[in-house]
């Protein structure tokens, strides 16, 4: 029976041992409210530089506060009086080290932000200028897509060596073999090669957008002028061929004997009479 009672009291003792620190921890904590310590805390941080308590108390012109005399007065150490009469030592004061550090940090942040904005603006301007000179952006230029690409397609597709009159948009009746044999196509061919090379240069080289469009417009006008020269060369060649053919026919007709030169006088008179008789009828 006694052994069972001892066992029943052991859990109770163990629980009391565990609850004792908790009960002690909930005891009220006394706060120390010393005005001198509070003033020192204010001076140490940012609130105010002053309130050098304890303050003096005078009785008949004599300072009677022993605490003031030992802290700030005649019995205090020299460093206390130097501290009280010296400059503002607050870290967060108007001239404090922490205030200066924060000001420098803010200025550094502002300068870094302005530099980053300037760098971003420079990079954007550089990318914009680069996009203006890259030939890849030409494929997305509305003016090129809607006008110059269509107008310059005949120049790009025009063959340097024509094999038929339609290759250079010439008259189908043109004798192209004789035209090429006489070498009339060589100056036109050289101009066409120059225009095609310049067109390829305008589409694949680094160039400003305005310069590229001006060059393509100049190529368009030059190609139109070259087409006129081609037609004029073909026309002059055709006229020369016709003149040569007429000259050959005239030479052949002059070399052959005239059928009227072999008639007698009687035949000539009969021919004249029959001619007028037929006109009267």
UniProtKB/TrEMBL annotation:
Name of the protein in question: Uncharacterized protein
Domain of life according to the entry: Bacteria
Chain spans, region Disordered: 85-105
């Amino acid at each position: 029976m006694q052994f069972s009672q001892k066992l029943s009291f052991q859990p109770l003792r163990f629980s009391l041992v565990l609850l004792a620190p908790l009960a002690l921890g909930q005891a009220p904590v006394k706060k120390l409210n010393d005005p001198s310590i509070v003033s020192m805390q204010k001076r140490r941080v940012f609130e105010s530089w002053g309130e050098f308590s304890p303050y003096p108390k005078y009785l008949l012109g004599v300072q009677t506060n022993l605490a003031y005399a030992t802290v700030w007065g005649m019995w205090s150490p020299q460093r206390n009086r130097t501290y009280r009469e010296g400059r503002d030592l607050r870290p967060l004061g108007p001239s404090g080290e922490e205030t200066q550090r924060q000001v420098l940090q803010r200025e550094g942040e502002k300068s870094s932000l302005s530099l980053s904005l300037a760098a971003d603006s420079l990079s954007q301007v550089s990318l914009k200028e680069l996009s203006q000179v890259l030939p890849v952006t030409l494929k997305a230029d509305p003016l090129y897509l809607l006008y110059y690409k269509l107008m310059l397609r005949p120049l790009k597709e025009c063959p340097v060596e024509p094999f038929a009159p339609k290759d250079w948009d010439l008259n189908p009746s043109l004798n192209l073999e004789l035209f090429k044999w006489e070498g009339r196509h060589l100056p036109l061919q050289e101009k066409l090669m120059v225009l095609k090379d310049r067109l390829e240069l305008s589409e694949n080289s680094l160039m400003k957008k305005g310069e590229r469009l001006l060059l393509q417009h100049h190529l368009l006008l030059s190609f139109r002028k070259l087409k006129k020269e081609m037609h004029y060369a073909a026309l002059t060649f055709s006229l020369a061929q016709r003149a040569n053919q007429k000259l050959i026919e005239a030479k052949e007709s002059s070399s052959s004997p005239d059928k009227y030169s072999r008639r007698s006088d009687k035949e000539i008179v009969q021919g004249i009479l029959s001619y007028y008789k037929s006109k009267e009828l």
